[in-house]
Design brief:
Layout lengths: L4 H4 L10 H12 L11 H13 L3 H15 L5 H34 L4 E4 L1 H5 L14 E4 L3 H11 L4 E3 L2 E3 L2
Antiparallel strand pairs: 1-2, 3-4
Helix pairs in contact: 2-3, 4-5
């Protein structure tokens, strides 16, 4: 496994779970490296979990932790491990549902003569080693049509749709 140079930026004799240490661990994990230091007690593991959750990268970070666990045999307190596995599974289920909805939306758009593409979220997930664990919240789509055509299309199907600036939100 490769050495992660960014970890060297925040080396310390003991792991101080400040934002720099957390950033260092996460950066190494996301870059496929092994951090120089990992959390050594339950409080530090909770700090890492909370940091990953706040940054909406808990699924991706857990993927890396599993890789490190398989290579180095790190110990994760069971309560945190179970919480992380639950989050990881929820993220995968949400992505499966979003992917299904994208296919349905693409079919609906195509059947109505509209062309477009998925932006951000699910589209960017394809750039990750394991796309199914990248957190997304909604489906962002660009359509090759004028505002009036798009608004009419959406409002006819979803009267409760909310339109603002250059967005239209609907269930």
């Amino acid at each position: 496994m490769s050495h992660c140079h960014i970890c060297d930026l925040y080396r310390s004799s003991t792991l101080d779970m400040n934002n720099n240490a957390l950033f260092s661990i996460v950066a190494c994990i996301l870059n496929g490296g092994i951090p120089n230091e990992m959390p050594s007690n339950e409080d530090e593991w909770w700090q890492l979990f909370d940091f990953a959750r706040e940054q909406t990268i808990e699924g991706v970070v857990f993927d890396g932790i599993q890789r490190i666990f398989n290579e180095k045999g790190i110990a994760i307190p069971s309560q945190i491990l179970f919480e992380w596995i639950g989050s990881w599974e929820r993220i995968k289920a949400q992505n499966k549902l979003l992917n299904t909805r994208i296919v349905e939306l693409a079919k609906l758009l195509s059947e109505n003569g509209l062309r477009g593409c998925v932006l951000k979220g699910q589209g960017n997930a394809l750039m990750y080693p394991n796309p199914e664990v990248r957190m997304s919240g909604d489906i962002d789509v660009w359509l090759d049509a004028d505002r009036e055509t798009i608004t009419k299309f959406v409002k006819n199907r979803f009267p409760q749709a909310f339109e603002w600036y250059h967005h239209i939100e609907f269930p």
